[in-house]
Specification:
Length: about 200
């Protein structure tokens, strides 16, 4: 009886070790190898790198506040006390937990609208695209709508001494279409636009 139990235990342990080897070592190595060979850029985070310098991922938002830049979605930043290996402060962002029905949320939106009106006086009579005053579900959405980008064209052009058409051309360059041409909406990648405005991307 004990011998049968021992054999069963060893069989179970052997099966456990085999499955652990397959799922914990072989499978991850195979998937990693395939992703690095076929989708290296995406597998490594879709990082924008120019002349050996990394500027960020096209998949994660960065906060731009200068009048010379295209502004993205509102970000709830938490700098806290986190630092990276270089000693620079690391910023974390997340969604808001305020309900749209609350007075606090209404005041927050009004404050954001006021800021945008002040920064874009030439658009005083135009409706502000909703994505410029609301936080995305992830808090890290790198895109805005073409309408939100167009709303900022004149401010960027005036600040940089460019023609509005030049700014719009750059925005159009980094406007992504609907998935399969039918799903979702068109979006503009804020980081890519700003890097081209700075002459980093061409």
């Amino acid at each position: 009886m004990e011998t049968k139990k021992s054999k069963t235990v060893w069989k179970v342990l052997g099966l456990f070790l085999i499955l652990m080897l397959i799922t914990g070592v072989i499978y991850p190595l195979v998937v990693t190898a395939i992703s690095q060979a076929a989708f290296k850029e995406k597998a490594n985070g879709s990082i924008i790198e120019v002349d050996g310098k990394k500027y960020g991922s096209v998949l994660l938002a960065q906060q731009f506040t200068g009048d010379e830049y295209l502004w993205g979605r509102v970000m709830n930043l938490d700098t806290s006390t986190y630092t990276d290996e270089n000693g620079d402060t690391v910023m974390y962002a997340g969604p808001t937990n305020l309900t749209p029905a609350s007075e606090d949320y209404e005041k927050l939106i009004a404050k954001r609208v006021e800021k945008l009106r002040k920064a874009n006086p030439e658009k005083a009579d135009e409706e502000i695209p909703v994505d410029l005053v609301t936080v995305s579900g992830s808090g890290l959405d790198p895109h805005i709508s073409p309408e939100a980008a167009k709303y900022q064209v004149e401010r960027i052009a005036d600040t940089r001494g460019m023609e509005p058409e030049e700014v719009q051309k750059i925005i159009d360059k980094y406007t992504e279409g609907r998935f399969f041409g039918v799903l979702g909406e068109k979006t503009v990648n804020v980081l890519e636009v700003n890097l081209e405005l700075e002459g980093i991307l061409k």
